[in-house]
TrEMBL record, chain A:
All residue ranges annotated as the Aldehyde oxidase/xanthine dehydrogenase a/b hammerhead domain in the record: 74-182
Organism whose genome encodes this protein: Hartmannibacter diazotrophicus
Biased composition (Basic and acidic residues): 1-11
Enzyme Commission identifier(s): 1.2.99.7
Residue ranges, annotated region (Disordered): 1-55
InterPro entries: Ald_Oxase/Xan_DH_a/b, Ald_Oxase/Xan_DH_a/b_sf, Ald_Oxase/xanthine_DH-like, AldOxase/xan_DH_MoCoBD1, AldOxase/xan_DH_MoCoBD2, AldOxase/xan_DH_Mopterin-bd_sf, Xanthine_DH_Mopterin-bd_su
Stored SUPFAM superfamilies: CO dehydrogenase molybdoprotein N-domain-like, Molybdenum cofactor-binding domain
GO MF, one annotated term: aldehyde dehydrogenase (FAD-independent) activity
Stated name of the protein: Aldehyde oxidoreductase
Recorded family membership: Belongs to the xanthine dehydrogenase family.
TrEMBL record, chain B:
Gene name linked to the record: hcrC
CDD domains (alphabetical): fer2 (cd00207)
Keywords for this protein: FAD, Flavoprotein, Iron, Metal-binding, Oxidoreductase
Organism: Hartmannibacter diazotrophicus
Domain of life according to the entry: Bacteria
Protein name from the UniProt record: 4-hydroxybenzoyl-CoA reductase subunit gamma
Domain 2Fe-2S ferredoxin-type: 3-88
Gene Ontology molecular function, alphabetical: 2 iron, 2 sulfur cluster binding; FAD binding; iron ion binding; xanthine dehydrogenase activity
Length: 820, 497
């Protein structure tokens, strides 16, 4: 029995089909004499989840559709390129040198650019009044090139013209005098040149060398893991509108409006208070707009500053893919010792990571690779090192999972290596290595307290019919010569919290108006993940209204300042809680006021069904709001939340970087063609832990979408650079993300029935879901390995990611030869 | 001669005289009309965010096909109805397709959604219940990075049931009437001798115009030329569109061969090719996406001479001939002779591709076609192999083999063909030196799609697979995609739509 099972309590969900709770039912006083109110006065001081037994919820935990769904399907949702342009809006296009990945810049002849039709201005670094840097922190990302080209695609100048077409055409007319230098392109290049963008980092425990020397069974191996382009459907875009006093209003498609605000202020030499950044929605982000939206917003603002006109910068898709960073590609090398049952005794693990020309977010990304190099497995003795390599390529950045996926793939390769060598079912070896009692401390010293994997994986193993299908795959492979099948069930354990501790804070702003409508604002951004809806559900729940009564508003740095990026899966955890605190602040003023007005106890007041239940009366919220206003009760509040319990000392590599872990598992079956390397995913079963889901429909969407995105990363999505360092796959014609037919028809996704939900006091006991599912397709990759392994039992297939047909064929040939 | 284009837009006839030769439909919608529901995702016809439906009369009613607005030239829309995402809802009442997308949680970030809605709108109007295969096919050209597609598939299944009852169906007769009214017999010429958009109505006026302006760019579906405009920013001052030419999009079955007009679309040609062999049909299904096939043409695929065009290797293996015309003179030549070298075809100044003759298979002939790409749907081939074997009494008496992606042009494997004569497919020992033949025939290159090594290895694997199948192995045990048996049913059904 797992720890989780033993912690089970008898708390059960209240029946949500209860007619009293359903919409439109008129509540009578009698209902409230027997039913506990959704939010009692006692709750106000507490965070949700701490009260027990659990109350019934009207809005949270419901599969409510995305707040913008109707706008999406009618084309009425406004993205930045759809905002009505103010008269005289100018358009920008980046100018760059298409020849070199590394060069010293001589003179740049812009005369033809300036003379081209429609051109109003051409911006270079000399036009920057403040600091020519768009980095998050390190100061190493020049907005416009300064004397040197550091990667193929670096922006050297920027054209401002009367139309986007004119700007794009003019941007190609520059003549560059440059002295090329030999670029460092690959991980190997950078290792040979000892070129690092950040110092290497290492943590672990015990004496790995000694343990490995004394271990009878020892294996080593390596795997190259490719990068990934975000391919958000809406490319990078920003529009800047100049105001009085040099003020700047910037509409930016960014996951981090505060950082765009700070960057624009830095570049223009303005006070941060002079810059307002607004983000209503993004057409996808996935990490690609966490730090890398800065440059385009800052350029638009610079152009607006120089010309005095509104300026818009929208990158063409190819420019976007050429100029912006991607998921880090890495080479993982391991040396593992294990016992006869496949239990790991010691692991020595190294990651060599291509960071690109600047640091960007590479510190946090590569740390997270290390934090997830264990995935779900206990390494008694371990050493993990990460080298952050500097190359003359785009600066790699955040991408859903933030380095974690590379760690997970390395861990799964270690398990596959042991299982194949021992001739055991890999699932058996996986389970044997799970964290468990007495084996529950991670390589970075955090104790795994909330592990549900034994139970979750057991349930999935049964529901997906693993044992029978394992046998069927074996039988198929003995009979089939050309086609081979593979099956794999892999787990995921993913740490939730920013490992940069100070980012784990959020603010919200809630106004209750006198007509009972509620204005909601917070620091999180909407990129399709349903954050705005989830937070609105929290607010609606608190005030007992339907979500339609909560007005969702654009993220705006003037309303909620100093925010964290919407990243690290933390959006609902942080902003949901901040909004809840704001609501409770307002209710905390209303309840004593109403108790006095109506002469009832505070615990006889509740907010539900659009009414405020005051003793035996049900008063519409708008009447309450009006009455409070007339009695000078403040109906607006800011809320602020910071994640408790977490701390991390990076120098000593100790602490508790994660508030909790999210868990999941997937089982995938594939068929490969050993003549061509083509591969088909036949079936996928997923069981994923969202705690007590805030919105099951939204969460299932995150799981399915994350799975397919991760599957693309590991199969069809390949970034190819030529010897000169030029990215050759910079458009959807050459870079292939999954399309509809890549998703198996047999695709079964379930939420794990979590008896108590999140063990920690998260928002309504839910769990973060943005990133963890991205790693579930490790099962697809391992299933391909499994299929390949059938060619020569006992030999570990040398398959690298992504598993393109060519990569699979390379492994097939190696298996047939009997060596890599 | 008409110096305007006219199309039907949200119930109104729009007539424009100021149409630039390379103005795109997407720019017209977003910049001129201010209809921003249609999105730009990639500007090269690969992501589908800009998908709109184009309506044209077909067998007495109106047929809607999805196209990528980013690479459609505005002038090409003459005589058509343009339906965008803003047009679907009836006041506050969502179109059934939109309602299904909402109900099934089919959107997340929403940026691809307008394009997906429009693709599903065309599937809804296909008038038959859509299964997963048809839905995959419909959505192959619509990339979604958020949802993982499952909810969209569910939405499609729930609404594309074959019952068509929307406003567009109810008003179909009136729409057809208007479009027939717009369909006049005049040539279109907007501009002057230095810069123009022209859309001649007859092949004779095309021949005449092109003779006078041999420097003009001929555009059929613009699925390639569109990218010259949006990506290479090429100035194309003179554009002649082939889509209005009467008879040029005709497909005629003459018994032992099929005649394909140069401006017949992939979509129209597909069922005919499929009837020749299901492998040909499945390969056609994997050419681009629905949007690309609705616009792109077989003639264009041949005329632009790309080394990675998918139809030429198959057409060559079948022994097709291409008909060229210049002024009043025509000539025909074997297709393999048309491709001289990379970027060079046997086409004189002022000469254009008028059509193709594609022989069917004789009773003792067998075709196999394999396309290899990183992604199954809507990808450009790393290589494509097409094999036609003539077999008498279990022995190969003739082989015609052509590959794409293996050289600077689609090319025949002459040495390999020769070495295969006398081979008994069922006896691997008799396959002889065919593999060496491939090394003589091809010296492929490495690029972002595949290495030279993989290409050569796989060319052999495809030949071996063809021989194994010829010996009787069903495709169920030889392929992970493209089941000949299942595809035959799907494709032939398409013939009757």
């Amino acid at each position: 029995m797992s720890e989780t099972d033993m912690r089970k309590t008898d708390v059960s969900d209240v029946d949500l089909a209860d007619p009293v709770l359903s919409e439109g039912a008129e509540p009578s006083a009698a209902d409230f004499e027997t039913e506990p109110a959704t939010a009692s006065a006692e709750d106000v001081a507490e965070l949700p989840g701490s009260a027990s037994p659990e109350p019934a919820y009207a809005t949270v935990r419901q599969p409510i559709r995305h707040d913008s769904a109707i706008k999406h399907v009618t084309g009425a949702a406004i993205y930045i390129d759809d905002i009505r342009e103010p008269a005289g809006t100018l358009h920008l296009a980046p100018g760059w040198c298409p020849t070199y990945a590394k060069a010293k810049l001589g003179s740049v002849d812009l005369s033809e650019v300036k003379a081209a039709p429609g051109v109003v201005a051409v911006l270079t670094k000399d036009d920057v009044p403040g600091i020519n840097d768009v980095s998050s922190a390190m100061g190493d990302d020049p907005m416009l090139a300064d004397g040197e080209i550091l990667f193929w695609g670096q922006v050297v100048f920027c054209v401002v013209a009367t139309s986007r077409d004119a700007a794009r055409r003019a941007a190609r007319l520059a003549r560059f005098e440059a002295t090329p230098e030999t670029p460092l392109i690959t991980v190997e290049d950078a290792l040979t040149a000892d070129s690092h963008v950040l110092p290497e980092y290492r943590f672990g425990r015990g004496d790995v060398d000694k343990t490995l020397l004394n271990t009878q069974r020892r294996l080593s191996g390596s795997i190259a893991i490719g990068g990934q382009e975000h391919f958000y459907l809406e490319g990078q875009i920003a529009m800047a509108v100049p105001g009085e006093d040099g003020d700047m209003l910037v509409y930016s498609s960014t996951q981090h409006p505060s950082e765009v605000q700070h960057t624009v202020a830095k570049v223009l030499g303005l006070m941060e208070a002079s810059v307002v950044v607004e983000t209503r929605r993004m057409g996808g982000g996935f990490g690609g707009k966490e730090s890398q939206a800065n440059q385009w917003a800052a350029l638009a603002a610079l152009a607006a500053h120089v010309t005095g006109k509104p300026c818009k910068m929208r990158l063409d898709r190819d420019d976007d893919m050429i100029m912006t960073g991607k998921r880090h590609d890495e080479v993982a090398t391991f040396d593992v010792g294990y016992d006869a049952d496949g239990r790991i005794l010691a692991v020595d693990l190294a990651f060599d990571s291509r960071c690109g020309y600047s640091a960007d977010l590479s510190l946090g990304v590569n740390d997270r690779t290390m934090f997830h190099a264990d995935n779900a497995y206990f390494y008694p003795v371990v050493d993990i090192v990460s080298r952050r390599l500097k190359t003359n390529t785009y600066s790699n950045t955040a991408f859903r999972g933030f380095g974690g996926p590379q760690g997970v793939i390395a861990a799964e390769r270690i398990i596959d290596t042991i299982a194949i060598t021992l001739g055991r079912d890999p699932l058996e070896v996986r389970k044997r290595n799970f964290y468990g009692p007495g084996r529950d401390v991670t390589p970075y010293g955090q104790t795994v307290e909330d592990n549900v994997l034994q139970d979750l994986v057991g349930k999935l193993e049964t529901s997906c019919d693993y044992a029978r299908r394992r046998q069927a795959v074996r039988t198929f492979n003995t009979r089939s010569r050309i086609l081979k099948k593979g099956l794999a069930l892999t787990p995921i354990k993913f740490g939730i919290s920013f490992t940069l501790i100070h980012l784990n804070q959020a603010g919200a702003l809630v106004h209750l108006y006198t007509d009972g409508s509620i204005h909601l604002n917070h620091g999180g951004t909407e990129m399709g993940q349903g954050l705005f809806l989830k937070v609105a559900q929290v607010v609606a729940e608190e005030f007992g209204v339907s979500v339609d009564q909560v007005k969702i508003t654009a993220t705006n740095t003037a309303k909620v300042p100093n925010t964290a990026p919407t990243a690290a899966s933390s959006g609902s955890d942080l902003n949901g809680m901040a909004a809840l605190i704001a609501c409770r602040e307002i209710k905390g003023r209303l309840v004593p006021f109403l108790a006095g007005e109506y002469g009832v106890q505070e615990d006889q007041i509740a907010f539900r069904d659009g009414k405020v239940i005051i003793g035996n009366e049900a008063v519409p919220l708008k009447e309450v709001a009006k009455k409070a206003y007339l009695n000078r009760i403040q109906l607006s509040s800011a809320g602020y939340y910071k994640t408790p319990k977490i701390h991390w000392n990076r120098d000593k590599a100790e602490g508790r970087p994660f508030y909790y872990y999210a868990y999941g598992a997937a089982c995938s079956e594939v068929t490969i063609d050993t003549m061509t390397g083509e591969m088909r995913v036949d079936r996928v079963d997923i069981l994923h832990d969202c705690g007590k889901s805030l919105n099951p429909a939204i969460d299932i969407g995150q799981i399915e979408g994350g799975f397919v995105q991760g599957m693309g990363w590991l199969t069809t999505e390949e970034l190819v650079h030529d010897a000169q360092g030029r990215l050759r796959t910079h458009a959807p014609s050459t870079y292939k993300i999954p399309t509809c037919s890549d998703v198996p028809e047999d695709f079964r996704v379930e939420l794990y029935e979590s008896p108590e939900g999140n063990r920690e006091e998260s928002i309504f006991r839910s769990k973060a879901v943005g990133e963890p599912p991205l790693m579930l397709p490790a099962s697809v990759f391992s299933a391909i390995v499994d299929a390949l392994a059938s060619i020569r039992p006992g030999m570990v297939p040398p398959l690298d990611a992504p598993a393109t047909p060519e990569a699979i064929m390379k492994a097939v040939h190696a298996m047939r030869r009997g060596g890599a | 001669m008409r110096d305007t284009i006219r199309f039907l837009r949200a119930g109104k006839i729009v007539e424009l005289s100021d149409v630039g030769p390379t103005e795109t439909l997407l720019d017209y919608l977003r910049l001129r009309e201010g209809s921003c529901g249609t999105k730009e995702g990639c500007n090269e016809g690969d992501c589908g965010a800009c998908t709109v439906a184009v309506g044209a009369p077909h067998r007495g009613t109106i047929r809607y096909r999805p196209v990528n607005a980013c690479i459609q030239l505005l002038g090409m829309l003459d005589g058509k109805e343009i339906v965008t995402v803003e047009d679907l809802a009836d006041g506050d009442i969502l179109h059934p397709v939109q309602a299904a997308m909402v109900d099934h949680h089919g959107s997340q970030c929403g940026f691809c959604t307008p394009g997906i809605v429009m693709s599903l709108f065309t599937l809804y109007h296909a008038g038959k219940a859509a299964d997963r295969f048809a839905i995959n096919d419909c959505l192959a050209g619509n990339l979604c990075r958020c949802t993982g597609y499952r909810p969209i598939v569910d939405a499609a299944k729930s609404v594309c049931t074959g019952e068509v009852g929307d406003r567009f169906a109810r008003e179909a007769d009136a729409t057809v009437g208007i479009l027939q009214f717009l369909s006049d017999r005049q040539d279109i010429f907007i501009g002057n001798d230095k810069s123009f958009f022209a859309a001649p109505r007859t092949i004779d006026s095309l021949a005449d115009l092109y003779l006078r302006h041999p420097d003009a760019t001929l555009v059929a579906g613009a699925t390639d030329v569109g990218l010259w405009v949006t990506k290479q920013l090429r100035k194309l001052p003179k554009v002649i569109h082939l889509g209005r030419i009467l008879g040029m999009s005709q497909i005629e079955d003459i018994g032992d061969a099929i005649l394909i007009g140069a401006s017949a679309t992939f979509e129209d040609a597909m069922p005919h090719f499929s009837a020749i062999d299901p492998d040909f049909g499945e390969m056609m299904r994997r050419v681009g996406s629905k949007q690309v096939r609705a616009a792109g043409t077989v003639g264009g695929n041949v005329a632009n001479g790309s080394p990675i065009g998918d139809t030429p290797p198959v057409l060559i293996a079948l022994g097709s001939t291409v008909e060229l015309r210049k002024g009043n003179e025509s000539r025909a030549l074997p297709l393999e002779s048309f491709f001289i070298d990379y970027g060079k075809q046997d086409r004189e100044r002022g000469e254009f591709v008028a059509g193709l003759m594609v022989p069917k298979l004789a009773a003792n002939q067998h075709l196999r076609v394999y396309k290899i790409s990183k992604r199954f749907d809507q990808d450009i081939s790393a290589l494509l192999g097409a094999f036609r074997f003539t077999v008498e009494e279990g022995v190969i008496t003739e082989a015609r083999i052509a590959f794409g992606g293996m050289a600077g042009t689609p090319r025949r494997a002459y040495s390999t063909e020769e070495r295969l004569i006398g081979t008994e497919p069922s006896k691997t020992a008799s396959w002889g030196t065919a593999r060496e033949g491939l090394s003589i025939d091809f010296k492929p290159l490495s690029d972002m799609r595949a290495s030279d090594h993989y290409r050569l290895e796989t060319a052999w694997a495809l030949l071996a697979k063809a021989l194994v199948e010829l010996a009787g192995a069903p495709s169920e045990i030889t392929r992970v995609i493209g089941r000949r048996e299942a595809d035959a049913a799907f494709q032939t059904e398409a013939l009757h739509v």
